[in-house]
Amino acid sequence: MKFTLSDEQRQFAQALRDALRQSTSWDTLLALGVHEVESVPDLVVAFLELGRAAVPGPVVESFAVLREPSSTLAWPPHVPYIVDDADHVYAIVHDTRYRAILEDARSSVDPARQLHEYRLGEAVGPIDGQAFDRGVLACSAQLVGLGRALLARTRDYALQRKQFGKAIGSFQAVKHHLADVHVALELAEPLVFGAAVTMTASDVSAAKIAAGTAAYQAMRTALQVHGAIGYTAEFELSRWLLKVRALVTAWGTESFHRERLMAALCG
Fold this sequence. Notes:
Blueprint: H1 7-22, H2 26-31, H3 40-52, H4 59-66, E1 71-74, E2 82-83, E3 88-93, E4 96-106, E5 115-126, H5 131-160, E6 162-163, E7 166-167, H6 172-198, H7 201-226, H8 238-247, H9 254-266
Parallel strand pairs: 1-3
Antiparallel strand pairs: 2-5, 3-4, 4-5, 6-7
């Protein structure tokens, strides 16, 4: 499948990228109309940029799943805790949306991602049939965007950091690691866009597997190339590293999506 972005999609992506360089606030997202995006391919365009900028907050839950600004949810077992806080808080149980009441906070590997236990309130009504897969695809697009940001930052660092009188980016072993990440991301992105067009369970799960694998590879490579400084919370790279670690198992683990893909292929 050949997927080429329209002029409008490219302009939207560029506008998001430019704005998010200045601010990753919720007001910025609302001003750019992310909450009004209807088509799933356009959502993927937006979430690639949200991932690239490591935007905090319940963006998947609010903009992709519920399509309600300032809302969040839990969807056990794949999203077992309420993600962050919002004006409207829900939990999805057996495809029914319930109001949820926040209880104890839980720690997350990503300090910008707050988690909460909850108890169920009153039932609101059914959730639409594509909501879960929209969440999976938005998360997948975020992971690809995060991976691309990590690759770009790691490439720049490798060209600046010198060892033995040379930039470490000139060493073949470093080049190979960065090239492998690039290939993985180039494989994952069209799978995410393709799944956004078909919206089949098998394509959505394949996209999540590929996106998670590529982003995790980008995370490991970034950490290895940066060395000890990459471990420090004070270094800005940690925003992207920790978000990948948190999202790679969100909206379904790799095992879940492999099982779902196999069931679709063999069923």
